[in-house]
Fold TetR family transcriptional regulator.
Amino acid sequence: MAGKPKVTSQSRNGIGALSGEEPGSAAQRDRRRRILDATLALASKGGYDAVQMRAVAEKADVALGTLYRYFPSKIHLLVSGLAREFDRAREKLDRTAIPGETPSDRLIFVLSRNTRMMQRDPHLTEAMVRAFMFADTAAAAEVEQVGQLMEAMFATAMGIDEPTEHDRAVFHLIADVWMANLVAWVTRRASAADVAARLELSVRLLLERPAAP
C-alpha cells in the first residue's frame, strides 16, 4: 500500500490555506466559531428545519442582528458549516497516510471515509447537503469554498500538486456525483452500500483506462 503523497500547504491544489486563515479580530473569529457550533448542533438534533436564525443566535449567545451580519440566511450558515467540516477532514488527511496503490484507490478511500463520517450524523448531513443543493448566487462565495475544499481533498488523495484544467473537470464531476448520492442517501432513495458502490464505479470509470482487448 502506498503512503500519502506529499502535497505542501503552499502548492496544495493551487489554493493554499482556505478557511484556516479567517479574517477579523480574535473576538470576531470566536463569534463566528460559536455561531457555526450552534448551527451544527441544532442541525445534528433536528436537521434542516431545526436551524432557525433566532435559535442559532440564542444558542450562540449573539444578537440576532449580529448573526445576520455574519450570515444573511440559514443557507449561508449551513453551507459554511459544510465548508468547516470539509476543512477539518482535509486537515486530517494531511496527518494521515492514505492507503491505495493507485490514485483511484486513494481517492475512493478518501470519499468512502468522508461519506461514512457524514452518514454517522444523518440529521446534520441532511441539513448541510440540502443547503448546499438549495444555495443560489447569494451564497456563491460559500459554495465556492466548499468546492475548493473538495478539490483540495481530491488533489491530495491523488498526489496532484498543481491540477490541470482536465484534473479540475474530473474533480467537479466527482464532486457532483458525491453530492448527488448524498442527496439520494438522505432522502432514502439509496442505501449506504449503494452510495459506496456508485462512488467507486464513478471514480474508476473516470480515472482508469479499460484494459486492452
Q: What stands out?
A: Confidence is low (pLDDT under 50) at residues 1-21. The CA atoms of residues 129 and 183 lie 7 Å apart. The two ends are 28 Å apart (CA to CA). DSSP finds nine helices and no strands in the chain.
